[in-house]
Design a protein that fits this description.
17% strand; 4 helices; YefM-like fold
C-alpha cells in the first residue's frame, strides 16, 4: 500500500490513487518534494466537515459537567513585583 505520490505519478495513476484513498485512507500528493494536496474518500471528507459542537455544548457533555469549582480569589495574598 502506498500513501504518498509524486504529482506526475498521481496524474498518471489517478484511478489507483482514488481507489487507495477509498480502501486505505487519505493519499498525499507531493509537488517538488513537498506535500501539496490530499486525496480522500467522500466518507472521510463528510466525517471531517461535519459541524462540531460549540464549546458550550462540548463542556456540557464533558464528564466534568456539574462539578463545582471554587473560582474565588484569596485577596489576602498579594504579589511581589520588582520594577
Amino acid at each position: 500500500m502506498k500513501d504518498t505520490w509524486q504529482l506526475q505519478e498521481a496524474k498518471n495513476k489517478f484511478c489507483r490513487v482514488a481507489e487507495q484513498a477509498v480502501k486505505y485512507g487519505p493519499q498525499v500528493v507531493t509537488k517538488r518534494g513537498k506535500d501539496a494536496v490530499v486525496v480522500l474518500s467522500v466518507e472521510e471528507y463528510e466525517r471531517l466537515k461535519k459541524r462540531k459542537d460549540s464549546l458550550a455544548e462540548f463542556l456540557a457533555k464533558s464528564p466534568l459537567a456539574g462539578v463545582e469549582l471554587d473560582l474565588t480569589r484569596d485577596r489576602e495574598t498579594g504579589r511581589a513585583v520588582d520594577l
